[in-house]
Specification:
By secondary structure, this protein is mainly α. The chain is built from 19 helices and five strands. Helix content is 70%, strand content 4%.
Length: 453
Amino acid sequence: MPKSSFKSEAKRSTKVQFQHFFLFAALVIAFFFFLQYSFIPWGVAKFVVPLFQPSGEKLEKMAFVKLPGLIWVSATQDKAAELSGIKSLDAVQLKDYINREYIFDFTFVERNMETHGYVKGATEFYAKSEVLGEHPIYLEPWIGFWILALVLAVVLSIFVTILLPPGIGLMAMLFDRQIENTKIKIRLQTGFPDEIVDLLTMPDHLFADKEPADVERAFRTVWDRTTTDEVSSSKNALNFDDVFDDNIDVVKFRNNDLYGRMREFFSDFLVKEIVDTKNGLLWRRNHFQILKGTTLYMTHHFTEKYSNNVTGLAYGGAAFLIVAVGIRGLKFIPATRPSFILLAIFLEFSMLALLAITLIFTEEEERMDRMLKKMEDANRSQLEALRVQQHDIRILANALVGKTEEMVKARVETAISEYMKSEDNIKRIVGEEIGQKITKALKGAFVDEDTRR
């Protein structure tokens, strides 16, 4: 790929704008209501009904029938066929068909005793089973399950905006911006110019097409910069020309030899930044490689900036759960209405899941002695770079001073030559010299006369 087209990708807008937040918020709201009214009832039904439905001998004595919607009821065997044929509950007296031993209703529809044989509100789920106890359980989804629906809605919105173009997708813009920010961090940590950083982080299939002369020049700079005093003084030290020639595979050389030297000279974390940035560039070309972009953003931005916040939220969720369980232990939350306990459980689950993800993407800490050694080598490299710059500046200054001296000398010679070419100036100079000679001679004559007297 041409160098100009590759660099043009980096010159893009990295500012999060109004359309990013608007689209993300719209997706969160849409997913939230879908999950709250569709997925949550379905999920609760799939979890509760298999656990507490009649089984064994109970099924021999009664029928357990699935009605339209998320409703299950028990009835006598002679009523089972009639219940199975019901298409809508609006036109039948449900209480005439059920025996009220097992009732599971996970719909947002109000029920009453006169028509349906049991009572529940429009914002409640109803579960009655002998396994659950004598009294039915009322679940309130707008208390117990809204936090779960919100978390899932945010997760889905994140995945959708990762796949969208950076111009409208919030997470796509954050990932795209993190690529450039990580490149800047690499440049600051190594002291290499942007051209070398681009070559170090370039995806393999693009790097293989680069001009060999540019690659060799950049690699030589990296090789020389990552040479420590111990290695340079060793008799077995390898020079760049000993390992690099025209027939070498530049991709393998970069990924193995050059990355290895940088890992030893700088740190493992720096090489991880380079590799993750390279993967981030692959995500930039194909947004379906979600893990590559997510790894870059989570490892080199989110975990560094928000890890303490996430830990604090996890502890806050644990505190809320302890309070909820304590209130339940004091009987202020009845066993038939456990929605507040479910809220605390799902809140703590969400915070712990976020903490787990943050820890997964958090980099391992290096041994302190290795870190100090690499910091020493990096500082030595920076000092060497400054010495080279100082030497170059001194050569430039000397060159400028030398040119100035020659320029002044040439101008003086030109001025003298022009002055001497003028006849008036010559006559004036000759006249002044003759006058000085006559004056001197007259003074000498008067002195001799006085001496004779």
